[in-house]
Amino acid sequence: MPLFQYQGRKAEGGTVKGRIEAPSEDAVAERLMGNNIMPVKITALAGKDAGGRLGYLLKSLNQPRSVPLVELVFFSRQMQTLMRAGVPIMQSLGSLQDTTNNLLLRETIGKLAESLDTGSDLASAIKCHPKVFPKLYVSMIQVGETTGNLSEVFGELTRFLDRELETRSKIKAALRYPMFVIVAITIAMFVMNIFVLPRFESIFSRMGATLPIQTIVLMGVSKFFTNYWPLLLTAISAGIFGFRKYVATATGRALWDKYKLRLPVVGTIIFYALISRFANCFAMVGRAGVPIT
Length: 293
Known about the structure:
Layout (H helix, E strand, L loop, with lengths): L2 E8 L4 E7 L3 H10 L2 E8 L5 H13 L6 H16 L4 H11 L3 H15 L4 H6 L7 H13 L2 H58 L5 H15 L1 H19 L2 H11 L5 H23 L5
Antiparallel strand pairs: 1-2, 1-3
Helix pairs in contact: 3-4, 3-8, 4-5, 7-8, 8-9, 8-12
């Protein structure tokens, strides 16, 4: 999004200067007037401030191209507060765009303001950004606009997303120890097969003793690890890549979810978390007046 430098005059008579990202000069002027600032001069910085643009580009490369749930909670809570205070929706979006750290969300808010400026309703504008706003979010906003209770709907979404964030945190906390154990065992297995067992093999060969079948198998696995570790790493990488591609399909996702629910201990945690999420979501949309179908 283009970067503009502006100079304006406040309603009480003071002068203000700064920089702002907006799709056009008209959008900059509209946002300034929404903040009770009369624009005096607006200059596009594209090509004139290479350092600023380079810094912005480097910052954009460091930013994740997704919106964390905590950012969506913050956006919903701020929208509820601003709309409950009677702030116009265009001015609310402008204020949030200036204070949002996530670049994807900031760009999306700017596009929402553009859509509203062209006469679109908020639900239709949000629907154009499925990577940021889930379908449930769109349905709730649509109900809020229809009933005229948009601030209350943002409040419901804030409470729901807060519970969702808490549920995810509990799931991660519950799965942290099993994952730590699995990772530790995997690392120990690699260290044993690559560094420790080959030394025992030379000792056993000098002794000339007859080894049990378990030890022979273990030494064979260690020799395979030592001699063919590039092939093993390639196979593991290809397996992970193929698994992620398969899980990205509808059939693979359904099959993986089916097996996740059957995992010992972990499957039960995931099952009850999903039931809790469904119940909270169903209660919220019911209170908001969304049709049951």
